[in-house]
Specification:
By secondary structure, this protein is α+β, with helices and mostly antiparallel strands. Helix content is 23%, strand content 34%. The chain has three domains: 85 residues, SH3 type barrels; 133 residues, no CATH class; 61 residues, no CATH class. Strand 15 and strand 16 form a beta hairpin. It starts with a strand and ends with a helix.
Length: 331
């Protein structure tokens, strides 16, 4: 039960066998290259656990496996079996006191931060509930991304360092013209208000980042829509963000438009909808603008199907979506 096999090192290790002593100094190789001292050793049914203190940072650590330095292979804890090094027990006792004092101080700071966050959330929850329209089905937000990728290990990721609430939507469809419209609400994202096909990212697939407007999902600002499924859970989700008034950039004259069946209505009571992955469609009273629609590449079809109903309308290639959005004033 205590034996494990290290595939990379091609070696079996019995964790029940003690290899170092209390007060012995060991090294971390292949990562931080810091030195540690063993201040305690415990044993259970799974084997031995070595309790360590980092001599540089004075942080606590544990190790289940410590191997001889002369058998070094990969990242891990190692001990010098030929020339073992030990610290004086009094020095280790002092180091243990310092490490514990540091751990206590960090725990106190964490508790203070937890209390601060809860206070901010309480304020933000009330504030966000007051501005969230009853008919809203989505929240338009801007997120500032920081690249935390490691190309050497093919690890690609990012961290959101700030979220700003730009507005609300009365539908759940992802429309880039709607995102651009709200981009001008915040000075840091105004450059995204201008149409740029390179900024439109459609990644609604497994492991994809969804629909977002921006240069990169790894760094800089992006704009995306967060759907609202349950009002209370959405309020909870954005409570901390709304706790800082500077993170709410909703124009007073930028209220949520009246709800429509799908994406939005404008000229001649027409509705522009996202019809399929490769097409958009226009429904409604199109007779007065049929020439304009035809000039933009539209084809009239009296037997289109939308929301389970047979409707007459104009079908367009997906490439015409932005042009139509401008035409209908949806930007």
């Amino acid at each position: 039960m205590s034996k494990i096999f290290l595939l990379g090192a091609n070696k079996e290790i019995d964790r029940a066998v003690q290899v170092v002593e209390v007060n012995q100094v060991i090294q971390m190789e292949g990562y931080s290259y810091h030195s540690y001292v063993v201040y305690d050793i415990t044993k259970n049914q799974w084997g031995i656990t070595y309790k360590l203190i980092n001599l540089t940072t004075k942080d606590f650590h544990t190790a289940d496996i410590i191997r001889p330095l002369k058998e070094k292979f990969g990242i891990g804890f190692y001990y010098d079996s030929d020339n073992p090094q030990f610290m004086d027990s009094f020095e280790v006792a002092i180091l243990l006191q310092e490490a514990q004092a540091k751990a206590n101080a960090e725990a106190d700071e964490e508790e203070k931060e937890r209390i601060r966050v809860e206070e901010v959330k309480a304020i933000g929850s009330k504030r966000f509930a007051e501005i969230l329209p009853e008919n809203a089905l989505g929240v338009i937000v801007a997120r500032l991304k920081r690249d935390e990728s490691d190309s050497q290990t093919d690890y690609f990721t990012s961290k959101t360092t700030r979220t700003v609430i730009l507005g609300f939507s009365t539908h759940k469809r992802d429309i880039f013209s709607e995102m651009r419209k709200h981009a001008s609400n915040f000075e840091e994202t105004t450059y995204l208000a201008e149409y740029n096909a390179d900024y439109e990212h459609r990644e609604k697939y497994s492991m994809g980042a969804g629909y977002y407007l921006g240069e990169s999902k790894y760094s800089g600002w992006i704009i995306e829509k967060c759907p609202i499924y349950q009002r209370e859970s959405t309020i909870k989700e954005f409570a901390y963000t709304a706790g800082d008034e500077d993170n709410i950039r909703i124009k007073k004259n930028d209220d949520v438009p009246p709800p429509s069946d799908n994406n939005g209505t404008s000229k001649a009571n027409c509705t522009l909808v996202d019809y399929s992955a490769k097409a958009v469609a226009v429904f409604g009273e199109t007779r007065a603008i049929k020439d304009e629609l035809k000039a933009m590449g539209g084809k009239f079809n009296s037997r289109l199907t939308f929301n389970g109903k047979r409707l007459a309308g104009w079908i367009f290639s997906k490439s015409q979506e932005q042009r139509l959005a401008y035409y209908f004033g949806l930007n």
